[in-house]
Design brief:
Structural class: mainly alpha
Oligomer: single chain
Distance between the termini: 100 Å
Number of domains: 1
Strand order of the largest sheet: 1-2
Helix content: over 70%
Number of helices: 14
Order of helices and strands: HEEHHHEEHHHHHHHHHH
Largest sheet: 2 strands, antiparallel
Shape: globular
């Protein structure tokens, strides 16, 4: 009955979180306009006009309230560790929105937050449960891998926040999947946070897609969400053999592949963009306009269509891996995941190359037409003078 009351509380809170998020985001939008805090478009931007920045701060306020409510169900130090970590991440994101931190400084600050979170929550990957034959990890290997997971996922999600709706659509899907797993594992705190994050992100979408009241989450929001997803992934990677086999019915050695497949689009985008930059002889951390969402919006689709398409690709990769899991051990499932990622990388390479070539042809054609018109007009003027 106690568990029923817990999830009954969640059902009651869903519409309340949505309405509160709407009001909070609207009020925060007015504050940001008064403070003149805008995202001014540059060569990498996918928007043409300046847009108020800082909707992510509303996420932090909502998470703070939810963590206070969830504290009564916390059997470990999850709430304290998460609230402390998110507080520092929001500071980093806010500073980045206002001052524009360098990648190195951002990584160093996030590294410090990751270390403190692992220390407070005693959360580190200690066993890969036989993934590719790897079992127990040495303490330094577990901590290093855990920090790598936090920094990679946080930065990857931060980088996909480049067009309207993409971060929110992906975020809703991730909350659904992680929420399902933690509900099955009876982890009340994390299932509570995941489920109640969904109405918050739905409320944000209304403003993110609005023409008159458009609002961006900024680095404050994308870093916060990215860090939260890395926290969820670490918890999923830390479940025991019994929980994996008996409760969520996944072979323990396949948990790492399942965890990574959930977040496949940010990972795919990061691998692609860093590879492209290295091939061009540039720093892999130097920002540009070559992300997956740029490829789609530059040549083909609107922001909303591109966001939906990328989310559907993420869903398809996860479902393929998840449905294949009962039939394969870690070597086979890892190979399937790598082939899926390679296939989509090839797909985006082909369409980017073809669209770029087509765009160049259209530009050349336009220049030829303009030159021809110019020559004809000059000849016509000369003929008129001679006549």
């Amino acid at each position: 009955m106690y568990v029923d009351n817990f999830y009954q509380t969640i059902l009651i809170l869903i519409p309340m979180v949505y309405l509160f998020s709407r009001i909070l985001i609207r009020e925060l939008l007015g504050v940001m306009k008064k403070l003149n805090i805008y995202d001014v478009p540059n060569t990498r931007s996918a928007h043409a006009n300046k847009v108020p920045l800082g909707a992510g701060f509303s996420f932090f306020i909502i998470y703070t309230i939810l963590l206070v409510i969830a504290y009564r169900y916390d059997e470990s130090s999850t709430c304290i560790a998460l609230l402390t970590s998110l507080s520092f991440v929001v500071m980093i994101g806010t500073y980045d929105d206002l001052i524009d931190l360098s990648p190195l400084h951002k990584y160093l600050l996030l590294f410090a937050v990751a270390c403190s979170m692992l220390y407070i929550n005693e959360l580190a990957i200690t066993n890969l449960n036989g993934w590719l034959g790897i079992e127990l990890l040495p303490w330094w290997g577990g901590i290093s891998l855990s920090i790598f997971v936090i920094l990679s996922i946080t930065n990857a999600f931060n980088m996909v926040d480049g067009i309207d709706g993409l971060s929110a659509f992906l975020g809703i899907f991730y909350m659904l999947v992680f929420g399902y797993f933690f509900y099955m594992l009876d982890n009340r705190v994390l299932s509570f946070l995941c489920i109640l994050s969904i109405p918050m992100l739905i409320a944000y979408l209304r403003y993110n897609f609005s023409n008159e009241h458009k609002f961006f989450m900024g680095d404050t929001g994308s870093l916060l969400l990215g860090f939260f997803f890395s926290f969820l992934a670490l918890h999923l990677l830390s479940i025991s053999h019994r929980e994996a086999l008996q409760i969520i019915q996944i072979k323990p050695e396949n948990i790492p592949v399942i965890s990574v497949s959930i977040l496949s689009i940010p990972i795919l985008d990061t691998l692609r963009i860093m590879g492209v930059r290295l091939l061009k002889g540039r720093s892999p951390f130097k920002a540009d306009a070559n992300h997956l969402h740029h490829v789609l919006t530059k040549y083909w689709f609107s922001h909303k269509t591109s966001s939906i398409l990328l989310t559907l690709i993420n869903i398809s990769i996860f479902l393929t891996v998840y449905l294949a899991e009962p039939h394969f051990y870690s070597e086979g499932l890892t190979l399937i995941f790598c082939l899926l990622m390679a296939g989509w990388l090839l797909f985006f390479w082909v369409i980017n190359k073809n669209m770029a070539a087509r765009k160049l042809k259209l530009l050349i054609k336009k220049m030829i037409v303009l030159d021809f018109q110019f020559i004809i007009s000059r000849l016509w003027k000369r003929l008129k003078k001679e006549v």
